[in-house]
Amino acid sequence: MRFLRLLLTKVPALRDERGSIAVNVAVVLIVMLGMVSLGVEVTNVYLTKARMQTAADASAVAGATALGASGVSSIASEVYAVAASNGFTNGQGGVTVTISNPPVSGTYAGNDSAVEVVIKQPVTLPLASLIYSGTWTPGARAVALISNSASYCALQLDTSSTTGVLISNGANVNMNGCGLGANATCGTAVTVNGGAKLTATALSVS
């Protein structure tokens, strides 16, 4: 009988311990889910910034192409159109696309042959706002330069082409220290879109 009484007095204690363990597990799960969600938010910011950089690169190239083909007055329309085609429409959803010819900072500041494009868009991060009350505004900057003094390792020759040079579908074109020249006289002599990237020392449009 004594053994039975001891056993019965232990049962409530065991139940209490199981209850406290369940509470602890629930708290840990909530913390883990919060950390995962915060990680997802931050990752989305970096992905958005990467998309912005692609859009800025493509827009700067389009602006420089327009500058070489048609002059300063045609820069804005080309830049805005290419930025919009990459998902960033100036004036919508807080997006700002700033165009500078010449650039206002950097290596080519004051160079009339260069076009600078800066894209920014504020984003809302519900969980991150709990620990940081400021505004999250990722941005990207790109500069494209028209130059006649560089060596060219790729030339587009057909002056009557309505396409010129088209780089798209995520292609990454690295000219390895030389330039790209296009003879097409259309307004889209060189187009970079669809997540593609062009790296060249110079871009020349006839």
Question: What is the secondary structure topology, with strand pairs?
Answer:
Layout lengths: L1 H69 L4 H11 L10 E5 L13 E7 L18 E7 L6 E5 L8 E3 L4 E3 L4 E4 L7 E3 L4 E3 L3 E3 L1
Parallel strand pairs: 4-7, 5-8, 6-9, 7-10
Antiparallel strand pairs: 1-2, 2-3
Helix pairs in contact: 1-2
Give a written overview of the molecule.
The chain is of the alpha/beta class and 206 residues long. The protein contains 2 helices and 10 strands, in the order H-H-E-E-E-E-E-E-E-E-E-E. It has helices spanning 2-70, 75-85; strands at residues 96-100, 114-120, 139-145, 152-156, 165-167, 172-174, 179-182, 190-192, 197-199, 203-205. The strands form 4 sheets. A 3-stranded antiparallel β-sheet has the order 1-2-3, covered by helices on one side. Helix 1 (2-70) packs antiparallel against helix 2 (75-85). It is elongated and about 80 Å long. The model has no long low-confidence stretch (mean pLDDT 77).
Rg (C-alpha, Å): 28 Å
Write down how many β-strands occur, each being a DSSP E stretch of 2 or more residues.
10
- Give the SSE order as H and E letters: HHEEEEEEEEEE
General form:
elongated
Largest sheet: 3 strands, antiparallel
Q: Give the strand content.
A: 15-25%
The termini sit apart by 104 Å
| Mean pLDDT across every amino acid position | 77
Number of helices: 2
Widest sheet: strand ordering: 1-2-3
